Fold this sequence. Notes:
Elements: H1 2-15, H2 22-27, E1 29-30, E2 33-38, E3 51-58, E4 68-75, H3 78-88, E5 92-93, E6 99-103, H4 104-109, H5 112-120, E7 129-133, H6 149-159, H7 171-179, E8 186-193, E9 197-207, E10 210-216, H8 217-227, E11 232-238, E12 246-261, E13 266-281, H9 291-320, H10 327-335, H11 344-349, E14 352-363
Parallel strand pairs: 1-5, 2-6, 6-7, 7-8, 13-14
Antiparallel strand pairs: 2-3, 3-4, 8-9, 9-10, 11-12, 12-13
Amino acid sequence: MKGIVLAITILLALFSSGCWDARDLGKTEIAIVSAHDLVREEEKTKEQDQVMISFLIPVMDKDAKEKSRIIKAAGETVGDARAVRANRYSTVTVTEIKSTLLGESLARQGLSDTLEVLYRNPFLSYQDNLAVVEGNAGEVLKPKTTVNIGETINCLLEEIPEQNFVPRVTLADFRKDVLNYGRNPVLPVLAKMGENGVEISGLAVFKKDRMVGKFDQNQMKYLTFLRGEKAHGVITYLLPGTEDVYVTLSGANSRKVDVELTEDKAYINIDIFLIADIIEVQKNYMFNENMERFQLTKEGAQDYIVSRCGEVLAYLQNDYQVDALNIGAAARARYGKEIELLDWDRLFAGSDINVNAHVKIRNYGAIE
């Protein structure tokens, strides 16, 4: 079915272009994912090459051994590399790219030049997904014999708000956080998983367009809680007063923020809300009408969330010294444009932050 949809897309692209003939139909190929990296020495075609762009193209032949292929182009700038691609592979269209991947070394160097080209490209959508890749972004696109890795990546990045409290981030989202006072972006981090797979391994933290750190799978959901980006997922914690009873909750989050500014300090209060169901309790731990157990489970979840959020805040304030929670935007909304004279990230790093968690358990699995 997906192959039929993609074939129809090709036909529509051709008929609407105003410049085609019978020979074009068999030659046109559609890229669905792009990857941007700093060029490796062995990949340079010219001494001045700095960046490498890889494009993943699904193979439509159902009998083909490989389900996708990659074309690459290196250049001194992103625009130069794209021009090289257009000159060498004129039959490849980029209008259907849904995800842009960024190598970690490129992200840590800074993405201003890369993003400037992406923002201005009329063939790309502001709703395209963005993600960082551990190591080289092009490596996760390598042709697979059993799966179309491009479709896997696109689906993964589209659906992540429904999985494990990870935000979906688009080109528009990233641009908004880079350009506006008191905001800094985060991006999902992808990593290879075995020979044929890819997974979300964490969240990358940025100071405007430059990556400054990342949180792993166990930490990323609590960064999402603190940022207030609505998502769904699960948390698992040890029930207070027990040694081996673990509880798993599945639910959705939200956030409320209050900011008080003095002359040289910010006082921040963050209320995190989680509406969830208990989906697993180990050791046959039953609730039934035992409200004391139920209350203990709820308080245990709240204490656990506050504790894990405290770990994330310690990294943000002490190690990264960046407001990845976008608290500065709330401060500006309250105090006006005048606070833009302040170095908000510095102020955030020295602020007093209080976190409260409010958990509402809808279904605790009572047996009548």
